[in-house]
Predict the 3D structure of the following.
Amino acid sequence: METPLVHEIPADAARRSPPRARAVSLIGPITIACGVIWGILQPYRLTFLHPRGQGLWWLLIEPPLLVAAVGVVFALVVAKPLLADLERHDAAPR
Amino acid sequence: MLPHAEMVHWLFASVMLFIGLCLLCEAIVGQEVWGARPWRKYLWPGVAFAMGVLLWPVMAFFTNSSIHMYAHGSWAEVLMLAGGAELGLVRGRLTSPLWRLTWPLAFAVTGTAFIVHEQNPWFFARSAFLHHLIGWTFVIGALAPLALVLRPRSAALQACMALTIVSVAVMLYTDRDVAPVFGHLSPLAGTPHR
């Protein structure tokens, strides 16, 4: 069985990605993972899992979700365009 | 209908975490790449300034004593000053690098306010412990932005400042209104709820 997607992933390009780009691309996912792991370790903090009897604020503000949300916002808003700029900067002749 | 104080701490922790991650990224990629898009230069100084503005309603609605009011008010002032000065510097309206002294000032004032306005000892409750810990972290962490005034392009110092902010965010996330710390909770603190 073959998937064209597999052929399109530049495996050695990913391996060759400069350490700066790798570090930037990892910050968001690590933050998201921290939020998810926190939610797994302390599920009682995720009030949407047991919403009965919870007040509005407890339903809105759930710390593990906040951490994961920061990671998502950071990855999409900051890291993604920054990686493109970094790639362009590294590719530019000096 | 106001949220619990701990929730406000978590919201501010989220904003601080975001600022810390932005600073860390800037330290990794360097100021040239970070400033490649104009909006990005204003991102974390603007968020820091907005945090200072938002500290005023916190001061108005969440203070139960004069010393709390002074502490929150002083944080609002120094954060607005440091964020505003950084905005002025990246915009080019301010040119003297000495304006960057507003960051060590903000750290030092924040740390001192944390330590001074916590009247209970370290192991009274978790919030007391965190006030002391965050206060000292800010006071000692002020050395990083102070050194950055002298060596503004140092990635290591910028990363130090970023990690100080991230660690304070983690500390704020662990805050609870009434909770034990390492098994210690004074009976005077009240009943732990979560």
In short: The two ends of chain A are 44 Å apart (CA to CA). Residues 11 and 25 of chain A are 16 Å apart (CA to CA).
